[in-house]
């Protein structure tokens, strides 16, 4: 089954790019099309945080407090019933491991949205845009829902967006970086969501990934490392299936397409 057929069988449009790290080998499906970042935005956020820590601009042990005003609902401290306090580096871990939106908001406050944008520009990711932290995304959803108009948050031309190729470029830069990049990949390896990219690979393949989910949008980017040492950067984005957030068939298609792409590169 081709990559396009895998996506079609799940009733979605798929966008994919995969590259063998350390080489020019790559494969893609609409790899340069604009796609919605959703929670994948937490990867460049965490990378900029780790870079600022390395530069001595931030102390990773500094504390932040997630109060009622900060809680957006969802996983991690975003869904807590009570106030919580944790370090900046634990905020980064929460943002990547359980996609904690409140932790990401608090981290954005310290790191700075403009600094994340500068990082993307430095890496040459000219088609990746970050409009703001999760709370800004929620604000646009509330406004658009109240006005009865299409959600900006689901339109890659009006929200934080990227392309699959640019996300594997980001992952490649992180993989080649033994400092901040390696730290972010370690946080991504702690992600508790194994139902997309990781589900497509056998247990002996290590997968460090970050998902993104919104109505009709399911994404994941990550690095798959085989026992022989070969590593692959993969970015998969899908559009479709908006009727429910729980669509294990689409999740599985993301993993199947990722594995099929890597199999082609390995052959």
Give an overview in words:
This protein is α+β, with helices and mostly antiparallel strands and 267 residues long. The protein has a single domain (3-266), classed as Beta-lactamase (3-Layer(aba) Sandwich). The chain has nine helices and nine strands. A five-stranded antiparallel beta sheet has the order 2-1-9-8-7, sandwiched between helices. The protein has a two-stranded antiparallel ribbon with strand order 3-6. Strands 4-5 form a two-stranded antiparallel ribbon. A hairpin with a 2-residue loop joins β7 and β8. α2 (42-54) runs antiparallel to α3, α2 (42-54) crosses α4 (101-111) and α7 crosses α8. The relative contact order is 0.20. The mean pLDDT is 96.
Write a concise synopsis of the structure shown.
It contains 9 helices and 9 strands.
In the CATH scheme, the class would be Alpha Beta
Rg, nearest Å: 18 Å
Number of strands: 9
Please tell me the overall pLDDT: 96
Provide the spatial order of strands within the biggest beta sheet.
2-1-9-8-7
Q: What ranges have pLDDT less than 50 throughout 5 or more consecutive residues?
A: none
What layout of secondary structure does this protein have?
Layout: H1 3-9, E1 13-20, E2 26-29, E3 35-36, H2 42-54, E4 63-66, E5 84-87, H3 88-97, H4 101-111, H5 113-122, H6 134-147, E6 161-162, H7 164-175, H8 180-189, E7 206-214, E8 217-225, E9 231-239, H9 248-266
Antiparallel strand pairs: 1-2, 1-9, 3-6, 4-5, 7-8, 8-9
Helix pairs in contact: 1-9, 2-3, 2-4, 2-5, 2-8, 3-4, 7-8
């Amino acid at each position: 089954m081709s990559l396009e057929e895998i996506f079609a069988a799940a009733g979605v449009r798929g966008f994919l790019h995969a590259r063998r790290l350390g080489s020019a080998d790559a494969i893609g499906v609409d790899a340069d099309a604009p796609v919605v970042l959703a929670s994948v935005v937490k990867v460049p956020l965490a990378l900029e945080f780790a870079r600022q820590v390395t530069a001595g601009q931030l102390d990773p042990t500094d504390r932040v407090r997630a109060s009622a005003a900060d809680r957006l609902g969802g996983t991690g401290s975003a869904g807590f019933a009570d106030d919580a306090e944790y370090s900046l580096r634990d905020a980064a871990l929460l943002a990547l491991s359980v996609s904690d939106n409140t932790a990401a908001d608090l981290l954005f406050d310290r790191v700075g949205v403009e600094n994340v944008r500068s990082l993307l520009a430095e890496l040459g990711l000219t088609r990746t845009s970050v409009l703001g932290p999760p709370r800004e995304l929620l604000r646009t959803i509330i406004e658009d829902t109240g006005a009865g108009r299409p959600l900006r948050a689901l339109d890659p031309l009006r929200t934080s967006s990227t392309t699959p190729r640019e996300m594997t470029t980001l992952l490649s830069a992180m993989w080649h970086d033994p400092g901040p990049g390696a730290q972010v990949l370690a946080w991504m390896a702690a992600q508790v969501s194994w139902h997309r990219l990781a589900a497509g690979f056998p247990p002996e393949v290590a997968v460090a990934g970050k998902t993104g989910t919104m109505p009709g949008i399911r994404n994941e980017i990550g690095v798959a490392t085989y026992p022989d040492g070969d590593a692959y950067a993969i970015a998969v984005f899908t559009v479709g299936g908006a009727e429910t957030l729980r669509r294990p068939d689409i999740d599985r298609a993301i993993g199947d397409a990722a594995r099929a792409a890597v199999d082609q590169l390995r052959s």
